[in-house]
Amino acid sequence: VLGLLVWALIADTTYHLHAAYGWVMFVSIFFWIVTLLFFVTYLLQLQLKFYVIPWALTLMIFNAAATILYVTAFVTCAAAVQPTSWRQWDYNRRAAASFFACLAMIAYGASTFFSFRAWKGLGSNAATSQVSDHA
Question: How does it assemble (predicted)?
Answer without folding.
Answer: Forms oligomers.
